[in-house]
Structure formats: C-alpha cells, structure tokens
Design a protein that fits this description.
With about 325 residues, the protein is of the alpha/beta class. About 20% of the residues lie in helices and about 25% in strands.
Length: about 325
C-alpha cells in the first residue's frame, strides 16, 4: 500500500492515520496553510507550522491545534512527517511523509519567487510529488516582483493626480500583505478593509513587519485621507462598502490578470499580474528539483499540465481534489 492514498475525504496516510488538507471532517488533519480551501472547519485535531497557527486560529476559532517548526521531524504512527517552506503565504508548507523508505511530498500551494514576506520555497527530494497546477499553462510567466511594484505605485500616483482613489483587490491572507510590502507610503496613506486589517493584526502580533495601515471604519470617507490607496478583498470592490470613496479606480492583483478575457470580465480598471502560486517555469523547476519518479497533479490546469509532464518524460497523473487554488470569485467582502 502506498504511503499516501487519495480518498473522498482528502489525502490519507494509513501508516500515520492522518489526512493532509482534508475537505471532509476527519480526526487528524495536517494543514499546509490557512486558505479556506486547504484549512477547513470540523477537524478533530489540526497540525500545522508554528507560523501558520495564529491565522488558523483566527479563521477557524477555538480548535485543537498542534504546531511544528519547519524541518522538524515528527513520528506519527509508522510515518515520519516534516513540514518544509512552500513560499506561498506566511507559514505555508509542503508536507513530507516517509513510510518504510518511501517518500511523498504534498506541496499544497507554492511559489518559487522569494516575496520577502513568506519563508522562501525549498525543494524537497522525494519519490512521489503532489503538485498544484493553478497556473499550469505556458502563458503564465510572472514578472519580477520589483517590476510589478513599480507598476502599482505608478498607478497609485496617477490616480492621486487625477483626484481618484485607487482600490486594489487582493486576498486578505498573503496577497494583501505582500502588496503592502511593495507599496510606496510616501505617495499617501494605505487604507484596509476589515478582513485585510484583521489578518494584518494577527501577523503583526507574531512579529511579521508590515507598513502602517488604517482600518476603514463605517464612518470613514475618501475625504478623510487624501491621496490614499485602499486594499480590500476582490468581492468588496463592487459592493456598497466602496462607495464612500467617491471616484475610484479599481485594480486586481492576480495571476489571472495575464488573461485579457478575465480582466474584461472582472470589469476592473487595471490588472496587475502577480500571484502567490508558481507560474509555468516555476512549476517545472520545482518538479525537476524534487527528482520525483511520480507526479500527481491536483488543482488547476490538471489535464493539460499532466499531458505535458508525461510527454516530457515524467510519470504523471491527475488527482481529483476539492482545492480551488487562486480564484477571483472565492473571497468576498465578508
């Protein structure tokens, strides 16, 4: 029996009697990171990195949670388990499982570029590698983060010159904080939606350095803070919440902005191509560095990416899961 199997509850290790990022309630869940498609409520026990734990508690409430630092090895039943940096968001991990010399690595979500916020991705050698493929098409190739930062700050300054408030849509965990570190506060103040600011507070409390931000309160208007830029979840940009800022320009920060059709469908004024997932070269680089014999492709462009891997000489197969990857539709203003 292989060390990991794919079930209707999630990725299961019989030797250790645990699941990785399960999507149905189970007794013991090992969690790669805090995004809602990977860290779900209802588990009996949770295990994650010490860096990821505060966000899990913030999002899931009073849960039974154990933590482990990167690189430490735990013995769970007959399995040896360790967590390794995935570079996706603060605390995100790849989970390595070894049973009788057979090594599997479940990547969760990951990116290769060091964003200066998350612990940088580290390749882990294994026999079997479970990878996402959110952006598993050759069209997805990211620009350096510094270049995207220049684009965003230039847009902010142009909006200010035109008397508009720029409003940038980004996930409240990971992407929003990454953008904060890229902004030039000399242009003006940075305002944040409550979902973003609450996550900022959790990360600041554990020592993550972020620039100063102002929480958008119910009585705040755009006139209160001239020259400001606003960061909010994507779903908030078209909501009543945004009307207080008067004339706005909306921008979305996502890997999906590389596709013109999605930019038009979202109706934003600007799209900035930046993602917390690996692009096409990043996926291939990560897979190559694992030296894995077998590749299992979960969420994203699974069929196309798997076909490419097989044609390129890997042994790859599609695995059905309920992970969503990066979707502009999944995070509302809540």
């Amino acid at each position: 029996m292989p060390a990991l199997t794919f079930t209707d509850r999630g990725i299961y290790c019989a030797a250790g009697d645990f699941y990785i990022d399960p999507w149905r309630p189970v007794d013991r869940a090992l969690i790669t990171h805090g995004h809602a498609d990977h860290a779900r409520p209802g588990m009996g026990r949770y295990l994650c990195t010490d860096i990821a734990a505060p966000v899990l508690r913030h999002r899931l409430g009073d849960i039974n949670i154990e933590t482990v630092p990167y690189g430490a090895t735990l013995t769970l039943g007959a399995a040896q388990v360790s967590f390794h940096p995935a570079g996706h968001v603060p605390g995100s991990a790849q989970i390595r499982v070894e049973v009788k010399g057979e090594v599997w690595v479940c990547s969760g979500d990951y990116k290769i570029e060091n964003d200066g916020l998350s612990t940088p991705f580290e390749p882990v050698r294994c026999h079997h590698f479970i990878t996402e493929s959110t952006f598993g098409l050759p069209v997805f190739r990211w620009q350096p983060q510094a270049d995207v930062a220049h684009q965003i700050n230039s847009w902010w300054a142009a909006c200010v010159a035109q008397g508009k408030t720029p409003m940038l849509g980004a996930y409240s965990l990971g992407k929003a904080q990454r953008l904060l570190t890229m902004l030039d506060p000399s242009i003006g103040p940075i305002l944040t939606h409550g979902a973003v600011e609450n996550t900022n507070a959790v990360l600041r409390a554990q020592g993550v350095t972020l620039p100063d931000t102002l929480h958008v309160t119910p009585d705040m208007t755009g006139k209160d803070h001239p020259n400001a830029l606003v960061i909010a979840p994507p779903g908030a940009l078209g909501a009543d919440w945004a009307k207080r800022f008067g004339t706005v320009e909306t921008g979305f920060a996502s890997g999906w902005m590389a596709l013109r059709g999605i930019r038009r469908r979202r109706g934003g004024d600007r799209g900035f191509v930046i993602s917390d997932h690996a692009d096409w070269p990043g996926l291939l680089s990560a897979i190559k560095e694992t030296e894995a014999e077998n590749i299992y492709v979960t969420h994203g462009y699974t069929e196309i990416f798997t076909r490419y891997l097989n044609e390129a000489g890997w042994t790859a197969a599609v695995v059905s899961t309920e992970y969503e990857g990066d979707s502009l539709e999944t995070e509302s203003a809540a």
